[in-house]
């Protein structure tokens, strides 16, 4: 029984190998036929429909697999994606010469003999095509259909600066913008077009730490949250008009880390500094001074952490978190000065007895400070958080 099963398995495997080899031979024959019927120099260097003066329509799709920061102190994002282009080249049609063959697949070396669009990403600071010669020709794939449609797919990794509204950090919303266009062909030669609902992104990229993807598409009828905002436009330069595709990835920074490590401790220190205003300046003057010193040191440590230790863009600009910590430090400093100035001491550091009128004025000033300073801080917080919320 086992011998019969082994014999049939071997027979089926042999048939598959024979059919595969036959298809490979057939595909090689078709590619040789295409090369023989065309001038190779023209096929490689001259775009399709050049003699008819027709525009080549290049349809583009994109799928983003991964995105993430290249370093914590920069706004440069690494974007790893599949980039696919489709166009028609009448010179590569073979439907009338070979029957029952729908398409052929070209090797990387064979693809060097046909025309390919000179597409580039103008906003990329660095672009990796994953070509590792001599071991590999890169992650790319070229398929030619019998009607002359060319499907060109390859994997790219682009480094793009996504800085946007750094002044609102950590409530800034980075926008990674990819501008795709031809390097040398004008819009009369190549016209780029997005294929609808084909500009997608992975819902949970593995390298996206500290951010989340937000949907920002002008079409409200699209319910696919994986669709990237995309559009087509024409730009006019000194050398002519060019077709351009734009894809925007909108990100939102996760603020939980900053809330629990910066904002809440700063608020607690400000509230603690007010406690010194509730202590009798005559009988407990030392306690008032100690609270002021403790809160002042605490806010200085937080400010040092904001400028040196937390992951923030390395930009020489004042940000929202800097303003918040500075205001908290200012409130604590005012409380500390108020506490020290209202602690009566003699020339030798010994406390002395105040007159009844002075004591009344001290208590009235403390009461005034306990009301005014919290009101100022509450109004500042309302305006601060409202500004960040409206800026979204």
UniProtKB/TrEMBL annotation:
Question: Which chain regions cross the lipid bilayer?
Answer: 257-277, 289-310, 316-337, 371-391
Q: For the Neurotransmitter-gated ion-channel ligand-binding domain, which residue ranges apply?
A: 29-254
Query: What membrane topology does this protein have?
Result: Multi-pass membrane protein
PANTHER family given in the database record: NEUROTRANSMITTER GATED ION CHANNEL
Signal peptide feature range:
1-22
Q: Which InterPro entries match?
A: GABAA/Glycine_rcpt (IPR006028), Neur_chan_lig-bd (IPR006202), Neur_chan_lig-bd_sf (IPR036734), Neur_channel (IPR006201), Neuro-gated_channel_TM_sf (IPR036719), Neuro_actylchol_rec (IPR038050)
Q: What keywords does the record list, in alphabetical order?
A: Cell membrane, Ion channel, Ion transport, Membrane, Signal, Transmembrane, Transmembrane helix, Transport
The UniProt entry, under Gene3D superfamilies, shows: Neurotransmitter-gated ion-channel ligand-binding domain (2.70.170.10), Neurotransmitter-gated ion-channel transmembrane domain (1.20.58.390)
Spell out the protein name for this chain: Neurotransmitter-gated ion-channel ligand-binding domain-containing protein
Where does the record place it? Cell membrane; Membrane
């Amino acid at each position: 029984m086992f011998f019969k099963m082994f014999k049939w398995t071997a027979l089926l495997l042999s048939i598959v190998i024979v059919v595969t080899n036959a298809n490979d031979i057939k595909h090689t024959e078709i590619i040789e036929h295409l090369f023989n019927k065309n001038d190779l120099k023209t096929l490689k260097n001259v775009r399709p429909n050049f003699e008819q003066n027709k525009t080549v329509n290049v349809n583009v799709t994109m799928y983003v697999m991964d995105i993430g920061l290249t370093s914590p102190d920069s706004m440069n994002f690494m974007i790893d994606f599949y980039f696919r282009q489709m166009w028609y080249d009448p010179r590569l049609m073979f439907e009338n010469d070979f029957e029952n063959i729908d398409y052929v697949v070209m090797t990387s070396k064979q693809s060097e003999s046909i025309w390919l669009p000179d597409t580039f990403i103008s906003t990329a600071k660095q672009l990796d095509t994953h070509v590792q010669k001599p071991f590999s020709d890169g992650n790319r794939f070229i398929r030619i259909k019998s009607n002359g449609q060319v499907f060109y797919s390859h994997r790219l990794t682009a480094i793009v600066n996504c800085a946007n509204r750094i002044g609102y950090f950590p409530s800034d919303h980075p926008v990674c913008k990819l501008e795709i266009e031809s390097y040398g062909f004008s819009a009369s030669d190549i016209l780029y077009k997005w294929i609808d609902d084909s500009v997608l992104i992975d819902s949970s990229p593995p390298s996206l730490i500290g951010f989340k993807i937000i949907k920002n598409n002008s079409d409200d009828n699209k319910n696919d949250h994986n669709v990237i905002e995309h559009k087509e436009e024409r730009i006019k330069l000194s050398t002519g008009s060019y077709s351009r595709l734009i894809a925007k990835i909108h990100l939102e920074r996760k603020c939980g880390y900053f809330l629990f490590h910066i904002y809440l401790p700063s608020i607690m220190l400000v509230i603690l500094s007010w406690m010194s205003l509730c202590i009798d300046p005559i009988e407990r003057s030392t306690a008032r001074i100690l609270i002021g010193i403790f809160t002042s040191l605490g806010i200085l440590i937080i400010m040092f952490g904001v400028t040196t230790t937390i992951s923030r863009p390395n930009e020489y600009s004042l940000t929202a978190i800097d303003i918040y910590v500075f205001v908290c430090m200012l409130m604590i400093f005012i409380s500390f000065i108020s506490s020290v100035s209202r602690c009566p001491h003699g020339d030798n550091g010994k406390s002395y007895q105040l007159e009844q009128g002075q004591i009344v004025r001290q208590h009235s000033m403390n009461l005034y400070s306990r009301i005014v300073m919290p009101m100022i801080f509450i109004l500042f917080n309302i305006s601060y958080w409202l500004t960040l919320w409206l800026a979204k």
